[in-house]
């Protein structure tokens, strides 16, 4: 297998500045909706987030976007996880959406703020009971002796809470990503891609084209 020869040219479309909305949140909402409607995959809301630990080591993982508005982007996780420990030390975060069948990518930089208990409770109890139990069972990122042990704990708690509400674990909750930069990328022929960044300047967003 010759990896150097695996490539394709991009030619679905061109991105011009006059096509962009002045507000990056609105531009992101448009592209997200188009990705969902295109039925690209089972997870059009999947985003890769990158954090940095106390030793300066970066790590990435995929989470699901669970909300977006003018305030930012929301996702939920185990607050004892590696990502949350990173964010407690360094709240800066990078998020990336890859919609390659549409030849599009979106990159977002910013910092996180924790969501309120009310927001966490509301979303937690909107999830299927099996997902709520999964959050109760999992000590995310910690070692476990076997898959059987995990499954047994899950079944025990499913039986325990069969006829009653599942309490939200205090270590489970969400973050709001407050963006300080958006980049929209549209693939172009001959590797001459269209790239635009939005940066806040004086209370509004400045748009700048970047070279590919």
Automatic annotation (TrEMBL):
Residues 121-147 are annotated as: Disordered. The keyword Flavoprotein applies. Binds 1 FMN per subunit. Residues 129-144 have a biased composition (Polar residues). Transmembrane segments: none annotated. Pathway: Cofactor metabolism; pyridoxal 5'-phosphate salvage; pyridoxal 5'-phosphate from pyridoxamine 5'-phosphate: step 1/1; Cofactor metabolism; pyridoxal 5'-phosphate salvage; pyridoxal 5'-phosphate from pyridoxine 5'-phosphate: step 1/1. It catalyses: pyridoxine 5'-phosphate + O2 = pyridoxal 5'-phosphate + H2O2; pyridoxamine 5'-phosphate + O2 + H2O = pyridoxal 5'-phosphate + H2O2 + NH4(+). GO terms for biological process: pyridoxine biosynthetic process. Its EC number is 1.4.3.5. Homodimer. Catalyzes the oxidation of either pyridoxine 5'-phosphate (PNP) or pyridoxamine 5'-phosphate (PMP) into pyridoxal 5'-phosphate (PLP). PANTHER family: PYRIDOXINE-5'-PHOSPHATE OXIDASE, PYRIDOXINE-5-PHOSPHATE OXIDASE. This is Pyridoxine/pyridoxamine 5'-phosphate oxidase.
